[in-house]
Amino acid sequence: MSTLTIAPSTSTRPTHAPGFTDLLRSEWTKFKTLRSTWWSLGAMLFLSLGMSILLTSLFTAHYATLGPEDKASFGNDTIGLILQPGAQLGELALTVLGVLLISSEFSTGMIKATVLAAPRRTPVLAAKAAVLAGVVLVLSEVIAWACFLVGSAIVHKHASVTLSTPGTLRAVLGFGGVMAMTALIALATGTLLRHTAAAVSVALGVNLVVPILLELVPGSVGRHLSYAMPQRAGQLIMDRTESVNTPYSQWTGFGIVALWTVVLLALAFWSIKKRDV
To answer: Which terminus of the chain has fewer Cβ atoms in its 10 Å neighbourhood, N or C?
Structure first.
């Protein structure tokens, strides 16, 4: 009589934890397959480039009707006129993108599968932040250079804007840095609140509503607080010269946005490590 031999069962448990390169590849796959990614990036491109061209064209077309102060402002800070309006609207789209990139995982429950695959949660968030910042930085710089080239061609009859003009290169490069940090701030907010509507509302409120309310504070304190908010502080890097109406210099404003980014990301890393999913 022959005996039946039963082979020992094999485990399906992974032989090794995913490395950071694996996590980057995974997050890139998630990023490019989400429809919200392309809608948000498309909206950013349309708003940033479209608004820059539109307002620059309007100022140029009505240049003869501008008052002396407006004409002086037009000539002294032309690069700011070209870049800042597009940046302000483009940041709205990036806020939605950054929040959705993490909040969608919490709302669909996908975050549980992500944590099972990578129990150390902080590298997952780091990979997500790296992918988001990298894509936004590259696209933002493409938009900034396009705005600069098209805008300088539109205004050339009334103002000269070249790379040799003091502050121009800083403004163009700073555009991408501010946009990337805006997306990271939104990602951190989404990680902390874990709810799309709440996170988008808070992020937009901090950028759009809070600065206006802070200006109601009497004296220079209110103005300092208002320009300490991320969006207003970030706009300063795109000014060619320091204005008497702004309490901070260009690089100080850039540093304020960087501080917001670092602090909120630190809180987000702490949150995703300590809280249950």
So the answer is: N
Query: Do residues 182 and 94 make contact, with C-beta atoms less than 8 angstroms apart?
Result: yes
Asked whether residue 15 is domain-assigned, the answer is no
Between residues 9 and 186, the one the model is more confident about:
186
Closest CA to 141 of 56, 204, 49: 49
- CA gap 183, 94 in Å, rounded: 5
Kindly state whether residue 205 falls inside one of the protein's structural domains.
Answer: yes
The answer as to whether 170 is a domain residue is yes
Q: Residues 170, 249: contact at Cβ < 8 Å?
A: no
Q: Which pTM was predicted?
A: 0.89
- Residue 184 near residue 261, CB atoms below 8 Å: yes
- CA–CA separation, 249 vs 17, rounded Å? 46
Q: Is 16 exposed, middle or buried (0-12, 13-18, 19+ CB in 10 A)?
A: exposed
String of DSSP letters for 145-168: HHHHHHHHHHSTTT----TTSTTH
Domain assignment of residue 230, given as a range: 20-274
Which of 22-26, 40-44, 139-143, 233-237 is least confident?
22-26
Q: How confident is the model at residue 7 (pLDDT cuts 50, 70, 90)?
A: very low
Residue 58 lies in a domain: yes
Least confident of 172-181, 182-191, 240-249: 240-249
Q: How many domains does the chain have?
A: 1
